[in-house]
């Protein structure tokens, strides 16, 4: 039986997920909701068989739904996820989990109390490059991990595809560490364990951070994070240093390896990892199967790591 899905938030990610879910054999998109009438009208024209609403609370109460996907701004996640889980619905949400610790902690508590299936849409949960590095760490191919570096640069923030999401540019909910850094901090947490902050320094412009530098540890492994909005190409880089081999992921999906010599690109086989594959995994989780997706508890650990930048 197909999973009856409701979608809250019809910005860039919500619209993309609606398109993917509408074609997905495991899902039936039953209803969508957004506070923006233009966004709702756009989906209504494209998918006339899908119910639309300007009030996300009514969607949560819809008894037809088995699951809710939440792509609204981060400070609304708890207000939608908690009643949805309490109503017996599974919840798949965009990251970050929340921006207030009280909200994130409440989401984790309710998920545990209700037993609701819960997951966050971290891109690197199933991206082939990240899966391959995880395999290398687990099987000892990397040797002893001695450090991890995360580096991001942006010539402008927000990025072009997010310009209509005004909250992304703001200090309260947006910024490059919540939007981008969280994905790579999640990967680091998954491979090495919870991250303990040691130092951070953040500078702000008229909105969100223009530069952020942080140091963490996972056990005895040092992790450094830098992010800047500056006159430089858009760059996404995550490097894991091992005593046998080191691994570098760039541009989300390109993997290179070094044994002390030049970086050499790794040919990756199998699924690339995308919104379709993560929806498939979410469906598997709802059917009681193991999942590679991050749950809300993992999301809360990442939230604590990210918000350390904004507490400095």
UniProtKB/TrEMBL annotation:
The keyword Oxidoreductase applies. InterPro entries: Gfo/Idh/MocA-like_OxRdtase_N, Gfo/Idh/MocA_oxidrdct_glycsds, GFO_IDH_MocA-like_dom, NAD(P)-bd_dom_sf. It comes from the Bacteria. Residues 3-118 form the Gfo/Idh/MocA-like oxidoreductase N-terminal domain. Keywords: Oxidoreductase. Transmembrane segments: none annotated. This is Putative dehydrogenase. It comes from Nocardia tenerifensis. The lineage of its organism: Bacteria, Bacillati, Actinomycetota, Actinomycetes, Mycobacteriales.
């Amino acid at each position: 039986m197909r999973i009856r899905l409701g979608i809250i938030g019809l910005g860039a990610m919500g619209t993309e997920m609606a398109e993917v879910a509408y074609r997905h054999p495991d899902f039936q998109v039953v209803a969508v909701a957004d506070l923006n009438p233009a966004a709702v009208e756009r989906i209504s024209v494209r998918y006339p068989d899908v119910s639309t609403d300007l009030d996300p609370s009514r969607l949560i109460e819809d008894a037809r739904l088995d699951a809710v996907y939440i792509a609204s701004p981060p400070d609304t996640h708890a207000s939608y996820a908690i009643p949805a889980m309490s109503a017996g619905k599974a919840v798949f949400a965009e990251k970050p989990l929340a921006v207030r610790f009280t909200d994130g902690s409440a989401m984790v508590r309710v998920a545990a109390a209700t037993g609701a299936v819960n997951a966050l849409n971290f891109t690197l949960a199933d991206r082939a490059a990240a899966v391959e590095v995880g395999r290398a760490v687990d099987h000892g191919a990397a040797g002893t991990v001695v450090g991890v570096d995360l580096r991001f640069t942006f010539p402008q923030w927000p990025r072009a595809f997010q310009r209509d999401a005004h909250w992304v540019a703001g200090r309260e909910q947006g910024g490059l560490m919540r939007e981008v850094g969280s994905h790579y901090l999640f990967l680091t947490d998954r491979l090495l364990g919870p991250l303990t902050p040691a130092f951070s320094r953040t500078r702000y412009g008229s909105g969100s951070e223009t530069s952020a530098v942080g140091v963490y540890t996972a056990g005895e492994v040092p992790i450094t994070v830098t992010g800047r909005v500056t006159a430089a190409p858009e760059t996404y880089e995550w490097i894991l240093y091992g005593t046998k081999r080191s691994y570098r992921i760039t541009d989300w999906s390109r993997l290179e390896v070094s044994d002390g010599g030049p970086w050499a690109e790794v040919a990756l086989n199998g699924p690339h990892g995308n919104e379709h594959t993560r929806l498939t995994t979410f469906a598997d989780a709802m059917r009681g199967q193991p999942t590679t997706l991050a749950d809300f508890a993992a999301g809360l650990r990442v939230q604590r790591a990210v918000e350390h930048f904004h507490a400095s």
